[in-house]
Amino acid sequence: xxxxxxxxxxxxxxxxxxxxxxxxxxxxxxxxxxxxxxxxxxxxxxxxxxxxxxxxxxxxxxxxxxxxxxxxxxxxxxxxxxxxxxxxxxxxxxxxxxxxxxxxxxxxxxxxxxxxxxxxxxxxxxxxxxxxxxxxxxxxxxxxxxxxxxxxxxxxxxxxxxxxxxxxxxxxxxxxxxxxxxxxxxxxxxxxxxxxxxxxxxxxxxxxxxxxxxxxxxxxxxxxxxxxxxxxxxxxxxxxxxxxxxxxxxxxxxxxxxxxxxxxxxxxxxxxxxxxxxxxxxxxxxxxxxxxxxxxxxxxxxxxxxxxxxxxxxxxxx
Length: 318
Hints:
The chain is of the alpha/beta class and 318 residues long. The chain contains nine helices and nine strands. It has two domains: 3-158, 3-Layer(aba) Sandwich (Glutaredoxin); 172-288, Glutathione S-transferase Yfyf (Class Pi), Chain A, domain 2, CATH 1.20.1050.10. It has helices at 65-76, 115-121, 148-158, 175-190, 192-197, 202-223, 236-255, 267-277, 288-295; strands at residues 3-5, 8-10, 34-36, 48-50, 56-60, 83-87, 128-129, 134-137, 142-145.
């Protein structure tokens, strides 16, 4: 995976993320500046950056669900022409996320060969794990944020002057409901599948896996009464759930042993997932082939031979 200390890259794991109980814990993002309309500091209280067309660039990877959040926000806010992207190769190596010299998996902005080169160009002397997404300020040559939840929310509000004709993902009247769903879904579904997949004891695995399906059951009940999580409006809560749903049947069900049920076994949840998939531009952010290549890449614990299965075949048509 690799990590950095004071801006210097080191290969290997930085610190163990497995607790004594065998439970897996995700490291927290540490770069949390904010893009706002006027450039003032945002909700995290850290430095602010002004929203301007063609000033920002996203470093993402197709197989990363956290990066998928940022791509979806960019899509729903119609910011394709204002925020450029670089897509990492589907599989990491000892250099972490890497890029080809040219083609789909190259970096058109700086021409780097690995993501750690982006982190090292930030003047802040970064220390921590090397994750995507990264929102980069092309003007000041700075990292704005590597926290996907913040990026989604800032894209929703910061660019209203330059991209006003788009959906509001976080309407004020639904804020508390969205926040409640986000908190539950992040802990037990978005991150829950990883807690199941990376657990190192039977007890930790079963606890995490059962929480995944308890929440999916609760979501199914909600969708039996409503079109979306918060009623009849598509919101940030739906956006944050979708990356897990679209990876579930082809990856998490098998690679992470979240195999009690598939998403396609839930009548309302399956219809809901496909409805989002067919929203304008969403299918362009989805790469089922890369999900399988990424989640079934060689892993000493999970998949030592690195053999990628040919199935399952999942029909996402409505």
